[in-house]
């Protein structure tokens, strides 16, 4: 039995996975804010899963944590997880000290990539394109995460596509993330709706010209991310996940339309079948927590 925990900005998902990789238990907790609260949330998640499975922390084959921010997988240190109130936290070491067993910590998008790969029964290469507040991808090659030489592999949200575009949080201008992410939409489409992208698509469906223009930029940005992932890594599948993926077929249809338009003018792109490589993560599946459970051995 393996245990995986996905610590998000508002909620924490914890799962137990059996020897065949099947999810057997799942709990959700509110995530605390700040160093101490995040640590206590993780400890509580382990305790809840332990109650459901009848296992002490040392009884699990492995324990993995997925968390936002920059993660040093060797030390378990987490840095710059702004939504959790973390600047620097030795999460792996501190949690291991509390539980009495080793803990593996991984970036949440990379953990989700591994979870999606396993859940969908994929082989070969896959990219998990996470569209949330920002944009990032996790890459899996033959069942193992590909992190690159410094762990930065997949940070395609910070590829500049418009030199005259808005200033990105990373310090560059016109990054993909500024148009193809939740924060990019919120900036362009101010609304009181707690889900700005939902409000945007509703306005676009009602014919609002500004909303349609923003939706077109969003779809083109996501399609550009798909193209980059295929042309650089030649992934066989691009799985779209994250908050924006809850739009489902509405979003996927817009992206497919852009990709098909490109194929009509580029025999080269047509030969790559980009639309055929893109799919959505199954709705309401805890892929990051599932991936975290697998990270302990990856």
How would you portray this structure in words?
The structure is a single chain. With 298 residues, the chain is α/β, with parallel strands linked by helices. The chain has two domains: 2-112, Nucleotidyltransferase, domain 5, CATH 3.30.420.40; 121-280, Nucleotidyltransferase, domain 5, CATH 3.30.420. The chain contains ten helices and 13 strands. The chain has helices spanning 35-53, 91-99, 108-119, 182-188, 196-205, 209-233, 249-265, 267-272, 274-277, 287-295, and strands at residues 2-7, 11-17, 23-30, 62-67, 70-72, 77-81, 86-89, 104-107, 125-131, 135-141, 144-145, 237-241, 278-280. The strands form three sheets. Strands 3-2-1-4-8 form a five-stranded mixed beta sheet. A five-stranded mixed beta sheet has the order 11-10-9-12-13, with helices on both faces. A hairpin with a 4-residue loop joins strand 6 and strand 7 (86-89). Helix 5 crosses helix 6 (209-233). The chain starts with a strand and ends with a helix. Belongs to the ROK (NagC/XylR) family.
Bulk shape: globular
Estimate the helix proportion, in percent.
25-40%
Name the CATH superfamily classification of the largest domain.
Answer: ATPase, nucleotide binding domain
Q: Provide the number of structural domains.
A: 2
Q: What is the average per-residue confidence, as pLDDT, rounded to a whole number?
A: 93
Using the coordinates above, name the CATH class of the largest domain: Alpha Beta
Provide the CATH architecture of the largest domain. 2-Layer Sandwich
Major sheet summary line: 5 strands, mixed
CATH topology of the largest domain: Nucleotidyltransferase, domain 5
Count every helix, treating DSSP H or I runs of 4 or more residues as helices: 10
Strand order in the sheet with the most strands: 3-2-1-4-8
Family: Belongs to the ROK (NagC/XylR) family.
Pfam families: ROK
Keywords: Kinase, Transferase
GO molecular function: kinase activity
